[in-house]
């Protein structure tokens, strides 16, 4: 390990989601979460699917839209300090392949959860609310916007 050696990326946080095997690892992680929830004896299949969807979307919201900054020391004069991971992803360029993947994946999980819960109204409302909490912040119109000043600093 070369301590103190500069890397070629200005902000490595922007490229991590494009690294080789990241999407497969992500999908396997969601699958493992679902298998673990299915293995709990008192969870029915609809409850396991709803919990998978809600836990996934909660984690995605926290990781992509709530936490700001970067775990790396960057030479960008603190610009990344005020941006969420979603805003840093692909240097803020909209509609890249990784942004599309991370927008489509909760939608696919939502469809699966809705199908396996047989569109039960309670599960449907929970799954829809969970989906909207991760899709709305991903809109290009909300890039860099802090609603009511929440998460401004």
List the helices and strands and how they pair.
Layout: H1 22-38, H2 45-66, H3 85-88, H4 97-116, H5 121-135
Helix pairs in contact: 1-2, 2-4, 2-5, 4-5
Subunit structure: Ceramide-sensitive subunit of the serine palmitoyltransferase (SPT) complex, which is also composed of SPTLC1, SPTLC2/3 and SPTSSA/B.
Transmembrane segments: 23-43, 101-119
Protein name: ORML1 protein
Explain how this protein is built:
This is ORML1 protein. Ceramide-sensitive subunit of the serine palmitoyltransferase (SPT) complex, which is also composed of SPTLC1, SPTLC2/3 and SPTSSA/B. One of its GO terms (cellular component) is endoplasmic reticulum membrane. Belongs to the ORM family. It is found in: Membrane. There is one protein chain. With 153 residues, the chain is mainly alpha-helical. It has one domain. 51% of the residues lie in helices and 0% in strands. It is built from five helices and no strands. Helix 2 packs parallel to helix 5. The longest helix has 22 residues. The chain is globular. The two termini are 34 Å apart.
